[in-house]
Design a protein that fits this description.
This protein is an alpha/beta fold. The protein folds into two domains: 136 residues, Periplasmic binding protein-like II (D-Maltodextrin-Binding Protein, domain 2); 103 residues, Periplasmic binding protein-like II (D-Maltodextrin-Binding Protein, domain 2, 3-Layer(aba) Sandwich), CATH 3.40.190.10. The protein contains twelve helices and eleven strands. Strands 3, 4, 5, 6, 9, 10 and 11 form a seven-stranded mixed β-sheet that branches. Helix 1 packs across helix 3, helix 2 packs across helix 3 and helix 6 packs across helix 12. The protein is elongated, with a radius of gyration of 22 Å. The N and C termini lie far apart (46 Å).
């Protein structure tokens, strides 16, 4: 029987990416956390953690982490089955459901999809936001039990479900277009008109310019605004052009606060739900709910 304290220490180090943070959460010393993980590795007979930057579980470590996550989910479900009314008032940080997703999904459809589950199960969630191409790494690292990603995967021990796609259009204010662009738009104008990017991981603008205009990354000026709200504010203030999903800016387009720079050109970004194959009714319910809602909210 694997020791619960040792499993917990290992899981917290992976999830927090820090021995210090794990120690603080467990109210023990960093040395105690390290000793617990070493003891767990001794019991399993294999290394469980690659002590690098970032910290990564080994293949055996991922299996142990999956076991620990499944154990906590099953415990949550058991308590709910035994005492349905009492479970409604029980919240535990140990039973948080950790999911990685891109900011555009979070800002548009994801919360509407999971709200009924959060309420009915009285769940605590830990949402980790990253670029849609980077979220899969958080799943591979064992930091989350599921992720929304634009990358397909045949990751062992996981299932992958297509959700649909988001349509990203280049948008800007009418005044910005009139100042920087002619009609029709000319390729050289993109080399002078500032783009707006979320951060260095945001490849949507460069992908659009490469695909439709043959412009390489670094051949155009760009702002970096690491905030979804700030990104849209930058666009509506006429400070740049950027790629935005139509479902996020449909009101702004209707009010003509923003316009499509090239209405006939857009990027289709597919989204997939990747999740560990855990024997959990809750995970199955989350998976079913996300897939069902996404098929209504996203382009198919």
């Amino acid at each position: 029987m694997l020791d619960l304290k040792q499993l917990q220490a290992f899981a917290f180090v992976v999830e927090e990416q820090s021995f210090d943070k794990a120690a603080a959460l467990l109210h023990v010393s960093q040395s105690a956390v390290s000793q617990r993980i070493k003891a767990l590795e001794g019991q399993v007979g294999q290394a469980l953690l690659i002590r690098s930057t970032p910290l990564r579980p080994t293949e055996a470590g991922l299996k142990v982490l999956g076991y620990f996550q499944q154990m906590h989910l099953l415990q949550h479900e058991l308590l709910a089955d035994i005492d349905p009314e009492g479970s409604k008032t029980r919240y535990s940080n140990q039973n948080k459901v950790r999911i990685a997703l891109n900011s555009d999904s979070l800002d548009t459809w994801f919360l509407k999809a999971v709200t009924p589950i959060i309420r009915s199960h009285h769940l605590l969630v830990d949402l980790k936001v990253d670029d849609q191409e980077a979220t899969l790494e958080l799943l591979k690292n064992g930091e989350v039990i599921g992720c929304i990603s634009s990358v397909t995967s045949n990751l062992q021990g996981c299932q992958s479900i297509p959700l649909g796609h988001m349509a990203y259009y280049p948008v800007c204010t009418p005044a910005f277009k009139a100042h920087y662009f002619s009609d029709p738009v000319d390729v050289d104008e993109f080399r002078y008109a500032p783009a707006v990017e979320f951060n260095y991981k945001d490849q949507l603008q460069s992908r659009y310019l490469k695909q439709f205009w043959g412009i390489e990354a670094g051949q155009y000026p760009s702002h970096e605004i690491p905030s979804s709200k700030g990104f849209l504010n930058f666009l509506t203030l006429g400070l740049g052009w950027g790629m935005a999903p139509d479902i996020q800016v449909e009101d702004l387009l209707r009010q003509e606060k923003l316009i499509k720079l090239t209405p006939d050109q857009h990027l289709k970004i597919p989204l997939y739900w990747h999740v560990w194959n855990l024997k959990s009714k809750l995970i199955k319910e989350i998976t079913h709910t996300l897939a069902e809602y996404a098929h209504k909210a996203l382009h198919q």
